[in-house]
Write a structure and sequence with these properties.
380 residues, alpha/beta, TIM Barrel, 8-stranded parallel sheet, globular, binds flavin mononucleotide
């Protein structure tokens, strides 16, 4: 096998090793996928100032995100169904993040439960919350995250309703997968994946099964989840969630300066500029393009992070240069997970850290906390 040198290498391997419906679930955006594509191309349009003959020795990528020490300002974003990309995927990703010294955020729609991840890791992780109509279930979920010693709650605010992804409908995506002939042939053909799945009991939504009355079997699950996202979620609920949780709160999915001001007033510890990786409003701008106006709106005393389209360390560097104090990667680590399990997630982090480190040096800096927009090339 050729050496893996970039995230694209992991994506190619991931496509070979994981059944089509789960590959498509990751590698797609809503409707025409224009926002999904723009998230990536917008980074390419930003150019950096190359500096020379400055001391580039002894560099550091270490910094903090919400007061937590991180080996680089990159967290693993919450990704639903991670445990269908690789057996016990959430545990594998959390372990890789822990070893690398970056935060891992577990999705509400994970396959491994909060308790599964807590039992198999020793550093606290973050928990991402989707708010459902069943508020008793949500209260219990928040309490379970507290009991598992999660160090932050990330409330996703851009998914009261679901964006439409054509491929998921055409593939009949469901958890667990429907036993159609096409799905069975595809799953058996991915032998490494199939053996892993046969070897784990974790194949349904771990945070839900057994925790709500209507869902005792996996068959009830798909219906329950689609019916449950609460379209009435609003700013008053943020206050309720903040009070119930009582710890660090991160709001994910802000794309508008006006919403950013409201988010800052809500008392959130960090806000994430995110269009959900181009999976919700197709036609929204790239998240990196939305970042500067949001930073202008909330000021530098608030932590503002960004995700969407980050595939390289150069992308992370550009996000920091435009004022973000942290970033998250979604697909970049899922490609690694599907390709090579925990080792692949570690590889994705190594690739990004190495690129970030060298980019910082090429731009004449040695400390990631010193990056400002002075590194952006503004034309001749
Ligand atoms: C397959 C997939 C599933 C996702 N599931 C969730 C989720 O359960 N909760 C959430 O807040 N965001 C979810 N997201 C969005 C990610 O947290 C993140 O915002 C996005 O992946 C960033 O874009 P990137 O993949 O280009 O890095 C998901 C993204 C993908 C690709």
């Amino acid at each position: 096998m050729q050496p893996i040198t970039c995230i694209e290498d992991l994506r190619v391997l991931y496509e070979k090793r994981v059944p089509r419906m789960f590959y498509d679930y990751t590698d797609s955006g809503s409707w025409t996928e224009s926002t999904y594509r723009d998230n990536i191309t917008a980074f390419d349009k930003i150019k950096l100032r190359q500096r020379v003959l400055v001391n580039m020795d002894n560099r550091s990528l270490s910094t903090q995100m919400i007061g937590q020490e991180v080996s680089m300002p990159v967290a693993l974003a919450p990704v639903g169904l991670t445990g269908m990309q690789h057996a016990d995927g959430e545990i594998k990703a959390a372990k890789a993040a822990e070893k690398f010294g970056v935060p891992y955020c577990l999705s509400t729609m994970s396959i491994c439960s909060i308790e599964d991840v807590a039992e198999n890791t020793s550093s606290p992780f973050w928990f991402q919350l989707y708010v459902m109509r069943d508020r008793t279930f949500i209260e219990r979920l928040i309490d379970r995250a507290k009991a598992a010693n999660c160090s932050a709650l990330m409330l996703t605010v851009d998914l009261q309703i679901l964006g439409q992804r054509h491929k998921d409908i055409k593939n009949g995506l469901s958890t667990p997968p429907k036993p159609t002939l096409a799905n069975l042939i595809n799953m058996v053909a991915k032998i490494r994946w199939a053996l892993g799945m046969l070897g784990t009991p974790r194949r349904g939504f771990g945070n839900v099964i057994g925790h709500v009355n209507e869902v005792d079997s996996r068959g009830d699950l798909s219906r329950w989840t689609t019916d449950q996202f609460d379209p009435t979620l609003n700013w008053d609920d943020v206050k309720w969630i903040k009070d119930r949780w009582g710890g660090k709160l991160i709001l994910k999915g802000i794309m508008d300066a006006e919403d950013a001001r409201l988010a800052a007033h809500s008392g959130a510890d960090a806000i994430i500029v995110s269009n959900h990786g181009g999976r919700q409003l197709d036609g929204a701008p790239a998240s990196i393009d939305a970042l500067p106006a949001i930073i202008d709106a909330v000021g530098t005393e608030h932590e503002v992070w960004v995700d969407g389209g980050i595939r390289t360390g150069q992308d992370v560097f550009k996000a920091l240069a435009l004022g973000a104090t942290g970033t998250m990667i979604g697909r970049a680590y899922i490609y690694g997970l599907g390709a090579m399990g925990e080792e692949g997630v570690s590889k994705s982090l190594e690739v990004i850290a190495n690129e970030l480190d060298l980019t910082m040096a090429f731009c004449g800096l040695r400390d990631i906390r010193k990056v400002t927009d002075s590194v952006i090339w503004k034309g001749v």
